[in-house]
Design a protein that fits this description.
The complex is a heterodimer. Chain A is of the alpha/beta class. Chain A has 2 domains: about 5-80, D-lysine 5,6-aminomutase beta subunit KamE, N-terminal domain (Defensin A-like, 2-Layer Sandwich), CATH 3.30.30; about 95-250, Rossmann fold, CATH 3.40.50. Chain A contains 7 helices and 10 strands. In chain A, strand 3 and strand 4 (about 65-75) form a beta hairpin. The longest helix of chain A has 18 residues, at about 185-200. Chain B has a domain at about 375-400 and about 410-440. In chain B, strand 4, helix 9 (about 245-250) and strand 5 (about 255-260) form a beta-alpha-beta unit. Chain B starts with 8 loop residues before the first helix and ends with a helix. The chains are: A alpha/beta, B alpha/beta. Chains A and B meet through strand 2 and helix 3 of A and helix 16 of B.
C-alpha cells in the first residue's frame, strides 16, 4: 500500500473500523419488532459499505422510532493525493503585526463594518470576531488599535448596511449568518453582494468595500458564487480575520520583513 | 434553605438596596410613559382579535388611527371607547375597520363622555381579566388533577417553524420526560412591531408566537398532561417589540412560563432601552396576575462575555430583574432568574467555579425557581466531549438545587437536535437526577475554601458594579456595554418612536385593574402563585 492510501484506524493499521449512529422510523417493542429493527439497521450499514457490521446498541424512542449505534469495517480506500485543500492564502499575523502593517501600508485606521443581516438575530458569531472579548483566547477586532469597528448588531436590513458602510467609509464589511433554514444564509449573502455591487456601479458610488461573510454552515469555496471576497467557516478566530484584512487591504512590503524590498507578490 | 456559603447577610442586603436604587428612576420613567404595544395590549385584553387582508392586526390599525387623529398621550382607551359609544359601532373590530379606512375621527372625551368611555372600557377589560383569572384557577385545577413534577423541571425546546409539527414533537418530548416545553419563536419575530395572527406553518428557526398557536399547543399539552398524570408547562417568549401583547396573549391562553428579561431585548436585539423598560413593566404586571413564571435571560451575557470575568454581571442583572419583577407585582415563586454553565472547560477548576456561581445564585434567591442553562459556547462539535460536559452541567444543577434545567444537546451549534440527540440528552439528565439527585443534601463546600471564596468574590464584584451603575445611571451603564459587552445608547435601537409620554389624565383600564391594591376575581389571591410553586418544592423536598 502506497503512503498516499489510508484506511480508517480502529486499533490496528488498516483495520478499516468505524462507528456510526442513526435513527430509523421503526418500532422497537415486541421481540419481533426488535429483530426486524436490528435487521433494518444491519441492512443500512451494509449498504453504507460496512462489512462486517455489528449493531452494538438499539433503543426504542417512543412507539415509532429506534436509535442505533453500529460498528463495522469499511473496505473503502482513502487516496490522500486526491484530497483538495484550500491553503490559507495569507500569513497569520499577531495583533501587533496587523497594527504595524496597517499603519505602515495603509497610513490610516482600517474601517470595518459588521452585521448580522436578514432575519438572523444570532450575533454570537459576529460578536466573537468583533467584540474586544473575541474568542478562543484571541481578542476581537475592536482590540486592534488600527482597526475601527462599527458593529451594527443583528437583523440589519441590506440597504441599511450598504448606506452605513458608505457613511463610515468602510474598507471591509463583515457579515455573519447563523440561521440556515431554507438556505437563508446563501440567499442573504447573495442579496448583500448584489446590493453593494449596485451601489458601487452608481455614478456617485464609492468603491465597493471588501465583502467578507462568515458562519458555521458556509462552504469557504463558494465565495465567487456568492459574489463576496472571502468566506470564513466554523472555528474562524479573530486573528485569522484580522490577518486576512491586513493582507488584502494593507498590501505592500511586510514592515517586519527586511528582505526582498519591492516584492509585493506575497500580499 | 440552609446557607452553604456563609454569605454576609449585610452584603446581600446592600446588593439588593443598590439594585433598587438603580432601578427606581427606570420605574418612574415607565410609570410616566406608555408605548404603542402597551396600548395594543389593552385592546387585546378587551378581546380585539383578527387582522386585515394584509395580515396587519386590527389592534395595530386601531392604535395607529387613534395616534394619528387624537394622539396616544391619554391612552388608546378613552378615544377608542368614546368613538365606539358615540359612533354606535357594535364592537371593536367594526370600529377598527372603519378607523383603518379613515372614517373615524377620534377625540379625547371630557366630563360625562369621559366617564362613560371609562366605564365601557372597564367593562370590556373585566372580561379579559376574568379569563386570565379563570385560566390561573384552571392551571391549579389541572395540577391538582394530574400532579406537580418534581424539581428540577426538565425544560426542552421545540422549534420546527410549523405549529402542527411542533405539537407531536412537544407531546413526544413530554412523554420522554420533559416537564416544560418551550416553543422557540421565529427568529425575526422580536423585531416585528405586530403579532401575527392565526395558526402558522412557516417560520425561521422557530414558530411564530400567535394567539392561535398558543391555544393549539396548550390544548395539546393538556391532553398529554392528563395522559401522563403530570402537568406539562408551556413556555414562550414575551420579548421584542410586542412584549406587552405577547404577555397578554399568554395570560389569555394559559401559558405557564414566559421568557421576559428586563434588558435582553436591549442588548441582544438592539431594541431601544426606554421602550424595553416600559414594555417589560406592563408585561410583568400581566404575568404576575396570570400566575406565569418569568424566565430571565442572564445566560445570554455569558455567550458573549467570559463566564468567569463576567460572573458578577449575571448577579447584578438578576438583582435588577428581581427588583423590576417585584415592583411589577411578581412573587418570588414567579422569578425564574436565569444563569448558565458556560465556563471554558479548559480553565482549571472550571467545575468548582460553576458550583460556586450556581450555589451563589441559589443562596441569593432562595425562593426563586432558578432557570439553569446548559453549555453552548464551549460545545465544539466533539459530541462525545459535549455529552460529558452536559452531564457535568446536570450534576451541578442537582447539587445546587436549581429549579428548571434546560436540557443541553450534544449537537449544540451543529444542527437543530435530531430526535436521538434529544433522547440521549434526556437519558443523561435522568441518570444524573436518579443517581445524584440527593447529593445536594451532602454538598457543603469547605468553610473558607475555594468555592466559598469564589462565591464571595463574585458577590463583592457585583456590589462594586452596582455602585458604579448607581453613579452612572442604569441607562448609561447599558450604553457603555456593562452587560454582555454590547454598547446600547438610551436613544438608539429600534422602537423608540413607539414611546409616548403620558399626559395628565392618561387612562389605561388594564393598568388600573393591575395596580388596584387588593385584587378582585373569584378564586384569585396572591397566594396562588406561592402555592403553585410551593407545592412543587414540598413535593421535591428532601
Amino acid at each position: 500500500m502506497s503512503g498516499n492510501i489510508v484506511r480508517p484506524y480502529g486499533d490496528t493499521t488498516g483495520d478499516g473500523r468505524i462507528q456510526v449512529s442513526f435513527t430509523l422510523p421503526v418500532p422497537f417493542g415486541t421481540p419481533t419488532e426488535k429483530a426486524r429493527a436490528e435487521g433494518a439497521a444491519m441492512q443500512l450499514a451494509t449498504k453504507m459499505g460496512l462489512d462486517p457490521a455489528m449493531v452494538v446498541h438499539a433503543k426504542g424512542m417512543g412507539p415509532d422510532y429506534t436509535f442505533f449505534i453500529v460498528y463495522g469495517r469499511v473496505s473503502h480506500l482513502v487516496d490522500l493525493s486526491e484530497v483538495e485543500v484550500t491553503e490559507r492564502e495569507f500569513p497569520l499575523l499577531s495583533s501587533a503585526e496587523v497594527n504595524l502593517r496597517i499603519r505602515s501600508n495603509l497610513g490610516r485606521k482600517l474601517v470595518v463594518v459588521g452585521a448580522c443581516i436578514g432575519t438572523d438575530a444570532h450575533t454570537v458569531g459576529i460578536d466573537a470576531i468583533l467584540n474586544v472579548k473575541g474568542h478562543s483566547g484571541e481578542k476581537g477586532l475592536e482590540y486592534y488599535r488600527e482597526i475601527r469597528v462599527v458593529n451594527l448588531g443583528s437583523q440589519v436590513a441590506v440597504p441599511d448596511l450598504v448606506a452605513r458602510a458608505d457613511e463610515e467609509g468602510a474598507d471591509a464589511v463583515l457579515v455573519s449568518q447563523v440561521v440556515t433554514q431554507r438556505d437563508a444564509h446563501i440567499t442573504n449573502a447573495r442579496e448583500m453582494s448584489a446590493a453593494f455591487d449596485a451601489a458601487a456601479s452608481e455614478p456617485e458610488g464609492s468603491a465597493r468595500p471588501l465583502l467578507v461573510v462568515g458562519g458555521p454552515r458556509f462552504d469557504p469555496s463558494m465565495a465567487a458564487d456568492l459574489g463576496v471576497d472571502k468566506i470564513f467557516g466554523k472555528g474562524t478566530t479573530p486573528g485569522e480575520v484580522a490577518s486576512y484584512l491586513a493582507a488584502v487591504l494593507a498590501p505592500g512590503r511586510d514592515p517586519l520583513d527586511e528582505v526582498a524590498p519591492g516584492d509585493e507578490a506575497a500580499a | 434553605m440552609q446557607t452553604r456559603l456563609n454569605l454576609d447577610p449585610a452584603l446581600v442586603r446592600e446588593a439588593r438596596e443598590l439594585a433598587a436604587k438603580a432601578g427606581q428612576p427606570i420605574v418612574e420613567m415607565a410609570k410616566t410613559h406608555t408605548t404603542v404595544s402597551v396600548e395594543r395590549a389593552v385592546l387585546r385584553l378587551a378581546g380585539l382579535q383578527g387582522a386585515d387582508a394584509d395580515g396587519m392586526p386590527w389592534v395595530n390599525r386601531l392604535v395607529d388611527a387613534v395616534r394619528e387623529s387624537a394622539g396616544l398621550e391619554h391612552g388608546v382607551a378613552l378615544p377608542a371607547w368614546d368613538a365606539l359609544r358615540s359612533g354606535g359601532y357594535p364592537d371593536l373590530v367594526t370600529l377598527a375597520e372603519a378607523a383603518a379606512l379613515g372614517r373615524v375621527s377620534f377625540r379625547i372625551p371630557a366630563g360625562d363622555d369621559a366617564r362613560a368611555a371609562r366605564a365601557a372600557a372597564d367593562a370590556a377589560l373585566a372580561v379579559g381579566f376574568g379569563r386570565i383569572d379563570a385560566n390561573r384557577a384552571d392551571r391549579q385545577r389541572m395540577i391538582d388533577q394530574t400532579s406537580e413534577p418534581r424539581k428540577p423541571w426538565i425544560y426542552l425546546i421545540v422549534a420546527t417553524g410549523d405549529i402542527y409539527e411542533d405539537i407531536p414533537q412537544a407531546q413526544a418530548a413530554a412523554r420522554e420526560g420533559a416537564d416544560v416545553i418551550a416553543v422557540i419563536r421565529s427568529t425575526g419575530q422580536s423585531l416585528l412591531d405586530y403579532v401575527p395572527e392565526g395558526a402558522t406553518r412557516e417560520g425561521f428557526a422557530g414558530t411564530y408566537a400567535t394567539q392561535e398557536n398558543f391555544r393549539l399547543m396548550r390544548a395539546a399539552l393538556d391532553e398529554t398532561s392528563r395522559e401522563l398524570g403530570r402537568y406539562v408547562r408551556l413556555t414562550n417568549y414575551a420579548s421584542g417589540l410586542c412584549m406587552p401583547e405577547i404577555a397578554s396573549l399568554a395570560g389569555l391562553q394559559r401559558l405557564d412560563m414566559m421568557l421576559n428579561d428586563c434588558m435582553y431585548g436591549i442588548i441582544f436585539r438592539d431594541i431601544n432601552p426606554r421602550r424595553t423598560f416600559i414594555d417589560q413593566r406592563f408585561s410583568r404586571q400581566i404575568h404576575a396576575r396570570a400566575g406565569i413564571i418569568i424566565n430571565t435571560g442572564e445566560d445570554n451575557y455569558l455567550t458573549t462575555a467570559d463566564a468567569v470575568d463576567a460572573a458578577h454581571t449575571v448577579v447584578v442583572s438578576q438583582l435588577m430583574n428581581e427588583f423590576f419583577g417585584k415592583e411589577a407585582g411578581l412573587a418570588d415563586s414567579q422569578l425564574g432568574l436565569g444563569h448558565a454553565f458556560e465556563i471554558n472547560p479548559a480553565v482549571p477548576d472550571s467545575f468548582l467555579l460553576e458550583l460556586a456561581h450556581a450555589q451563589l445564585v441559589r443562596e441569593l434567591f432562595p425562593d426563586a425557581p432558578l432557570k439553569y442553562m446548559p453549555p453552548t459556547k464551549h460545545m465544539t462539535g466533539n459530541v462525545f466531549a459535549g455529552y460529558l460536559l452536559d452531564a457535568f452541567f446536570n450534576l451541578c444543577g442537582v447539587m445546587t438545587d436549581q429549579s428548571i434545567l434546560l436540557i443541553g444537546m450534544m449537537t449544540e451549534g451543529i444542527h437543530t437536535p435530531f430526535l436521538s440527540d434529544r433522547d440521549l440528552a434526556l437519558e443523561n439528565v435522568r441518570y444524573v437526577r436518579d443517581a445524584a439527585g440527593r447529593l445536594g443534601d451532602s454538598f457543603v463546600p469547605a468553610p473558607g475554601g475555594f468555592i466559598e471564596q469564589r462565591a464571595k468574590h463574585v458577590l463583592n464584584e457585583s456590589i462594586g458594579l452596582l455602585h458604579r451603575i448607581n453613579d452612572e445611571g442604569l441607562l448609561n451603564a447599558i450604553a457603555e456595554g456593562t452587560f454582555g459587552i454590547t454598547r446600547r445608547p438610551a436613544d438608539g435601537g429600534r422602537g423608540l418612536d413607539g414611546v409616548i409620554k403620558r399626559a395628565d389624565g392618561y387612562f389605561n383600564p388594564a393598568s388600573e385593574i393591575l395596580e388596584r391594591p387588593e385584587r378582585a376575581g373569584p378564586g384569585d389571591s396572591g397566594s396562588i402563585a406561592a402555592s403553585e410553586v410551593g407545592a412543587a418544592k414540598i413535593g421535591a423536598s428532601r
